[in-house]
Amino acid sequence: MSLDLALTNARIVTCAGDDLTPSAPGFVGIRDGRIAALGPMKEFTGAVRVEDGGGRLLTPGLIDCHTHLVYAGDRAREFEQRLQGASYEDIARAGGGIMSTVRATRAASEDALFAPSAARARRLLAEGVTTLEIKSGYGLDVDNELKQLRVARRIGRELGIDVRATCLAAHALPPEFAHRADDYIDHVCRAILPAVAQADLADAVDAFCDHIGFAPAQTQRVFDAAQALGLPVKLHAEQLSDQGGAQLAARYRALSCDHLEYVSEDGVAALARAGTVAVLLPGAFYFLRETRLPPVDLLRRHRVPVAISTDSNPGSSPTTSLLLMLNLACTLFRLTPAEAFLGVTRHAARALGLQPTHGTLAVGKVADLALWDAESTAALCYEIGAPPPVAVFKRGVRLSS
Ligand code: NIG
Ligand code: FE
């Protein structure tokens, strides 16, 4: 059996189990972009090309499973307003917030939107991210939602990484539908989602279920439309209040439920039964200076898989550092370093429906790898933004050196 490439002499963390102790020096063999062999050095018999890992730490490539990184403009002015006492909700109700990014994103040409968005994605790549989810939700009409999703797909193609695109048309109420939320939901279900599905521009459908977003009954209509189009769903749920969004998402076997600061035990139990991943977003918690913690102990007790993500967006989490999120998840949410690291690998893959192929190192999985000059995955969580990996491989191809 010939290998195209082998990474040898590496301390491997496969993330297949919950114990993230690195192995004794071993190798990963790659053929056709997949892992074809993996084991201790004494089992290594050669490859067409060999790269010596130098005793460094080898992990799966990281997965950022919740971002809104395709947008134009910024919200630095609102940051100042919030520092002077205005709340995220106050700003949204006054026509700022998500709507100010919608205005900037609608005004931008596709190329003008691509440039800063691809730059953000490149910053994630530099940190070892090899799979990324990108949501729309700053277009809020057919043409602009399609434009955002095309940019998301183009980022995947041009950067050579896996991008899962999610249609979040039910993110906020656009001005042309002011005071007509039900009519806008009709438009989402009858025009936007079918156009997106027709162009094959989304892999999933998301909604923002909250008192400044959409009500559970409206969210349910969006989920019904998604289901009719054969698209899986996920939900921004219980970020600012408990709307029963987790229970609703679980009824639709959602891939993930995200934020969850206000989720109840009933909601957590529903997620557990449905096999839905809880995606925790410590960047938004930090940046909005939230005080209500997501119920990590309840999630553990009900054995809900927990993922961690940047939520990269201009309003609530302007960051492109998943490594920083590892530290915040431990420091703010009290996750163990192992839980946090599984949250950006195995469980993040599951949040995207990619668990059969991504998120762990095992024979048959895609050869997405990150090589770190670090003692352990705990060391990557311990630093407040650990140094980037020394090498990243996407489907067996080296992305950085
Ligand atoms: O995940 N909660 C809604 N959506 C984003 C924020 C979007 C924005 O403020 O632009 C979030 O926090
Ligand atoms: Fe979000």
Coarse shape: globular
CA(first)-CA(last) distance: 28 Å
Question: Fraction of residues in helices?
Answer: 25-40%
Supply the helix-strand structural class. Answer: alpha/beta
The share of residues in extended strands comes to: 15-25%
Features:
single chain; 401 residues; eight-stranded mixed beta sheet; eight-stranded parallel beta sheet; 16 strands; binds N-(iminomethyl)-L-glutamic acid; binds fe (iii) ion
Helix/strand layout:
Layout: E1 5-12, E2 26-31, E3 34-40, E4 49-52, E5 57-60, E6 62-64, H1 76-83, H2 88-93, H3 98-107, H4 110-126, E7 129-135, H5 142-159, E8 162-170, H6 181-198, E9 204-209, H7 216-228, E10 234-237, H8 245-251, E11 256-259, H9 265-274, E12 277-280, H10 282-287, H11 296-301, E13 306-308, H12 322-333, H13 337-343, H14 346-351, E14 369-372, H15 377-382, E15 391-394, E16 397-400
Parallel strand pairs: 1-4, 1-5, 6-7, 7-8, 8-9, 9-10, 10-11, 11-12, 12-13
Antiparallel strand pairs: 1-2, 2-3, 5-14, 14-15, 15-16
Helix pairs in contact: 4-5, 5-6, 6-7, 8-9
Notes on the protein architecture:
- The protein is of the alpha/beta class and 401 residues long.
- It has 15 helices and 16 strands.
- It has helices at residues 76-83, 88-93, 98-107, 110-126, 142-159, 181-198, 216-228, 245-251, 265-274, 282-287, 296-301, 322-333, 337-343, 346-351, 377-382; strands at residues 5-12, 26-31, 34-40, 49-52, 57-60, 62-64, 129-135, 162-170, 204-209, 234-237, 256-259, 277-280, 306-308, 369-372, 391-394, 397-400.
- The longest helix has 18 residues, at 142-159.
- The protein is globular, with a radius of gyration of 21 Å.
- The protein starts with a strand and ends with a strand.
- The model has no long low-confidence stretch (mean pLDDT 97).
- The site of N-(iminomethyl)-L-glutamic acid has 13 residues, from helix 3.
